[in-house]
Amino acid sequence: MSGLEIERKFLVKRGGAYRRAAFSCSHIQQGYIPADGATVRIRVRDDRAFLTIKGRSVNGGMTRYEFEKEITLDEAAHLMQLCRGGVIDKHRYLVRSGAHVFEIDEFHGANDGLVMAEVELGNEAEAYEKPDFIGPEVTGDKHFYNSHLLSNPYERWKENVPEDYR
Fold it and tell me: For residue 2, what pLDDT is reported?
């Protein structure tokens, strides 16, 4: 898959309502290969693996170029050795809301307690219905970029997040 990725990110309220609303759950581990001007990610999601390259964000962090290709688990294991800073470990829950699917990420390890949602859109002005458990928007806030969470994990700055979302 290649093209523009248009997404918005949000904090998710405590309480686990997203788990009850989910139609799917998967385990994700991902690492990042150092690159100037792009984000290069290796992801293993359950029994599948992907190489993803993302360009710099524009429009307040909402839009950026994305290239993604499925790779073998063996290729992913080898590429993970090139990753720096550790691995992001999370569970992803998929929740339908209106015509969209929200991806809810529940982080583990040094990012334990952080739960974020994102929704992909066809264009920047596209309307969407937020489930009740979706909170403040954090699109474009680098603190919430997965690649940033490796070097500056949530456990170091979670007190800056409103109490209902930590």
Answer: 66
Q: What is the pLDDT of residue 60?
A: 76
DSSP letter string, 11-58: EE-TT-HHHHH-SEEEEEEEEEE--TTSEEEEEEETTEEEEEEE---B
Q: What is the residue type of 143?
A: H
Length of the chain: 166
Catalytic site positions? 32
Supply the Cα-derived Rg of the chain in whole angstroms. Answer: 15
Residue of 86, 165, 98 lying closest to 133 (CA atoms):
165
pLDDT tens, position by position, 61-99: 788 899 999 999 999 999 999 999 899 999 999 999 999
> Are the C-beta atoms of 10 and 116 separated by less than 8 Å?
yes
Tell me which fold the domain 6-165 belongs to: Hypothetical Protein Pfu-838710-001 (2.40.320)
* Residue matched to tokens 């969470």: 149
- CA pair distance 45, 24, nearest whole angstrom: 12
- Give the DSSP H/E element, type plus range, for residue 151: helix 146-151
